[in-house]
Design goal:
Length: about 350
């Protein structure tokens, strides 16, 4: 395989949450807030919900409610559940009386497509399927031809997602992929559930897509560490996370096939895997924004991605290039912990 595909997976970037007393702080007297945390496997990733509450009974209930919101999103938008509305849409080309949450995510995706000039496009699924087919057992074990890609790209067009009177339809052959947006939406729903239950200080993190509200009772912020891709256990920077969301897209997350080494993040405009940067980390007000824009920046690359972010209110980014440069948007460093780098 061409070396340009191999270089995409040379290094790892891992988001870690730097919090002290992560499972539960020691019991405190006089109703003082304590930290409680649970981690579960959902949406093909590890999800952690951490809250400060006055007692374990309260914490258990609000955490369960938060996870239930994530389960609900997974039931609607999982690509691996046959009865999910995502799979029904991709199989039948339409969903009647679609769930409002599913409609919201599809409509919101068009906003990110517009802002990124099509670099973010959930109708990318036929292209992903084409690449995957090339590296399945018995396949040619080589990239698609230019003609194959050009033909498949005719099915990639977010403007062809039709939503009317609660019904969703696609043109024949079109399919959608929600891997760059569903987790962020699920995190937002979990946070909103916590807030509705009176929780003011908490975070939800789903495989590197996190949203953080309030702070610790001692007044210190949540800390989000971005691990050095070259040195395990070392961090390139730490973010003070108060009422923000942070998400990272990178070429280390998934492979179509271990031997193929092809990035799961392809450019909807060309059909080829994205290249040029190792990862993009985005700070935004909501997790769905951070998730989608992190994907868009990764696809767009250093110059185009940075230009987009600079034109978005309340959005910042940090890009790690293949030659290990750190590229910051103008306001990103305001979120960094003092002395972090």
């Amino acid at each position: 395989m061409n070396s340009k595909y191999k270089i995409l997976f040379a290094f790892l970037l891992i988001i870690s949450i730097l919090v002290s007393g992560c499972v539960q702080s020691e019991s405190q007297e006089n109703g003082e807030l304590q930290e409680f945390q649970q981690t579960r496997s959902i949406m093909d990733t590890t999800v952690t919900v951490a809250v400060y509450a006055s007692n374990e009974s309260e914490a258990s209930k609000v955490i369960d409610d938060a996870f239930n919101e994530i389960y609900r999103v997974d039931d609607l938008m999982s690509p691996s559940k046959e009865d999910s509305q995502l799979n029904i849409l991709n199989t039948r080309g339409e969903v009647e009386n679609a769930d409002p949450a599913f409609i919201h995510v599809l409509e919101q995706s068009k906003y990110y497509s517009d802002k990124s000039g099509g670099a973010f496009d959930i109708t990318i699924q036929p292209v992903l399927d084409l690449w995957r087919s090339k590296f399945l057992p018995g396949g040619p074990q080589e990239p698609p031809t230019a003609d194959e890609l050009n033909e498949t790209l005719k099915l990639v067009n977010y403007s062809e997602i039709n939503i009317e009177d609660g019904n969703i339809s696609l043109k024949p052959g079109m399919k959608v992929a929600l891997g760059g947006i569903a987790k962020g939406y699920a995190v937002d729903r979990a946070i909103e559930s916590l807030q509705e239950n009176g929780i003011e200080n908490a975070f939800v993190n789903a495989g590197g897509d996190g949203r953080y509200i309030g702070q610790k009772p001692d007044g210190t912020p949540w800390m989000v560490g971005l691990q050095n891709p070259d040195r395990s256990g070392q961090y390139i920077t730490a973010i003070e996370a108060r009422d923000i969301a942070v998400a990272t897209s990178g070429n280390y997350e998934r492979y179509f096939n271990e031997s193929a080494r092809v990035s799961h993040i392809s450019d909807p405009r060309t059909g080829y895997p994205s290249e040029g940067i190792i990862s993009s980390t985005v700070i935004a007000r909501s997790a769905i924004d951070a998730d989608a824009f992190a994907t868009a920046v990764f696809v767009m690359g250093e110059e185009e991605g940075l230009e987009m972010v600079e034109n978005l209110e309340g959005v910042e980014c940090l890009i790690i290039t293949e030659d290990r440069r750190l590229v910051y948007s103008s306001g990103f460093k305001e979120y960094e912990a003092e002395g972090s780098i």
